[in-house]
Amino acid sequence: MLWWVWPAAVSAAFLPFTFWVGGRFPGEFFLRPFSLSTEQGIGTWWSGILLLVFALLSRSLAGVVRSHDPVAARGLYGLAIVGLVLFVDEMGSVHERVELFVPLPGELALLPLALGGGLLLGYSLAVLGRRREVSRGAHWLVGAAFGLFALVYLLERAEHEIVWEPGVARGLRLLFEEGLELAGMLLLIGAVVRVQSAAGVFEGGLRALLPSRGGLLWLTRIAAVASLPVLALRAHFSADELRIPAQGDFGTMIPVALMVVAALLSVHEGIVDRRHRAAWWTLAGMATLVSIDLQCHLVHYLWYERPALRWRSDLGLLWSTPLTLLAALRVPSLRHRAALWGVALGYALVVFTAFTDAERLALVTPYPIAFALIYAIAAAGDETGQEDQAPTRSHRWRAGGRAPDPPAS
């Protein structure tokens, strides 16, 4: 099956909910988690993950082409960083809060971020434009995607200037705006898949969207470095100061990404460990569910009269952590991992924060659980000696090109 069918189908599935919620039609409250316009919803999680996958695939490709074209690799690294910045903004609504961190009035506070991102994007596109044997025109797709993003920004400006009454017109405006944004994200991923094909590492179907194991661990290291300043910054503000209506919580964006990393690493291990593939993919599904709940705070929709709950990420972990641990213990190679004790200790912290008023401490609880789970999965993968297994996608990345032909029997 073509690689784009599933992401395009999932993206399209969110559009009717976006229209209904945007028009504020009857019952729209119960559909908000599935609307692309709800910052803390499943739709926003999906769009953010598309950007994260774009960043991870760009980083993975940079590792492939670095040996024979280091200049093109730098362009791909640039795209990976741009993708990460877009992911952070999509999940954490950073541009709505930028005045908290940049001492400039109004939209001028966005200027440093826009200039820095624009220069890095321009450099990456210029590099890939000159390395046509690598990019195969992918830079045009990236440019078109950012053209759509610019159009979305203009539509958002119109939203603030025009009063849109509830109804069909408002629903269609949101549908068009969010649809353009999703189309841009799919173009970004399409650009990276095009480079994959040129690099000789393309595989059809959903495997085309699976970043390399090295790329996933690269993101984990970045998350580890970024955790301390993010936590320190988040702890500086109270929940009331950070609670901007209908915006995301930047305090959970790192564990949201880490749980996706754990899920993708589990998929890698399931490809290699065929005997226990079902157990690995069950763990991948559970980690994905935890990531969604960290972003959406589904408990908020169960107890709407207590809006403060949307900032208590530990309440979601209260039910999901034991299930994740059980899923991990189904995998034989994970049962003896000491790192899983880190998951258990993290759960003890979850229980403490969930039944106290330790609101600031609650933000920390997803971090040890996510890092411990990733460490356990990565260590299990290291023990299997993946390079010695039958050729798979991750081996081709590590080899820097096509997998070698299997030995004759």
Backbone shape: globular
Structural class: mainly alpha
Oligomer state of the chains in this structure: single chain
Helix content estimate: over 70%
Radius of gyration: 21 Å
Query: Can you summarize the main beta sheet?
Result: none
Strand content: under 5%
Task: Give the helix tally.
Answer: 19
Average pLDDT level: 82
Give the end-to-end Cα distance, rounded to a whole number of Å.
Answer: 30 Å
Q: What series of H and E elements makes up the topology?
A: HHHHHHHHHHHHHHHHHHH
Spans where pLDDT lies below 50 across 5 or more residues: 387-409
How many strand elements? 0
Structural key phrases:
409 residues, mainly alpha
3D architecture notes:
By secondary structure, this protein is mostly helical. 70% of the residues lie in helices and 0% in strands. The chain is built from 19 helices and no strands. α16 (339-354) packs antiparallel against α18 (366-384). The protein starts with a helix and ends in a 10-residue tail after the last helix.
